[in-house]
Amino acid sequence: xxxxxxxxxxxxxxxxxxxxxxxxxxxxxxxxxxxxxxxxxxxxxxxxxxxxxxxxxxxxxxxxxxxxxxxxxxxxxxxxxxxxxxxxxxxxxxxxxxxxxxxxxxxxxxxxxxxxxxxxxxxxxxxxxxxxxxxxxxxxxxxxxxxxxxxxxxxxxxxxxxxxxxxxxxxxxxxxxxxxxxxxxxxxxxxxxxxxxxxxxxxxxxxxxxxxxxxxxxxxxxxxxxxxxxxxxxxxxxxxxxxxxxxxxxxxxxxxxxxxxxxxxxxxxxxxxxxxxxxxxxxxxxxxxxxxxxxxxxxxxxxxxxxxxxxxxxxxxxxxxxxxxxxxxxxxxxxxx
Length: 337
Description:
Elements: E1 14-19, E2 22-26, H1 36-44, E3 52-56, E4 64-69, E5 75-79, H2 81-114, H3 121-135, H4 142-148, E6 161-163, E7 168-174, E8 180-186, H5 188-199, E9 209-212, E10 215-218, H6 221-232, H7 238-255, H8 264-282, H9 286-293, H10 296-303, E11 306-308, H11 314-325, E12 333-335
Antiparallel strand pairs: 1-2, 1-3, 3-4, 4-5, 6-7, 7-8, 9-10, 11-12
Helix pairs in contact: 2-3, 2-7, 3-5, 3-6, 7-8, 8-9
């Protein structure tokens, strides 16, 4: 099998041009491509028709196979399948290290939430990380909020948070892909931070901000990621929460599926239901969830008849998922028919 090579996207490549109701492809010399093998390779890349300035790597083993500009004006990339598979393996292996660092991070968050009554940087960032941990939020970026009017945790506005009874907070906001997201959390420590932030008169309309002297400074996605890295001592970020949460959600969903799942059709249905449930919580498509967020080893072990116990508390379930992924013996794992 040929080795993958680094693509140079600035080098000449195959260009796509509109022709009639479809497209034609031209090589570096401007000649129309006619050989069936190259045309079939390009078709298998499934390049969206709306993309402009499409560039296709001339090398079938280049790690980047396609670039283009989408309808929103953003540059998009399509990678070689083997490259994606390799990067996904590295990502999911790193996720296990993140999961092992979570108890340390949570203790730090707990301490920073309790040690001060001030809306200082440490306390507000601890609140943000608690929300990432428990609320399945995207981190959000300022650029995306401005261009798409969709929000994540770092760009949430005061108006997106409603204070319910007791410790309840309801977040109702337009998220990625135009979906209106509603998240309700019961957390007195988070409520104690969010309530004064929502009611403050100074500063910008963003919800998350901390005081520096007499001024308010908005929380940025980089601030939250820096807190996560510093507290864990590892190269982790807000995105790792979504990957880990998706994997745990999938494992829990599969644990309560019909235990008598002997047929291949029944197993496929159980997996599809679990992936769909995770996609709902993460606001992604099932295809994206399965490909990019759920560790495939959870599904592999389910197909082998191994699941986590269905009656575990949240933190117990996380430990069980780690055992499941590492293929370790554990009383928290069950063999199903």
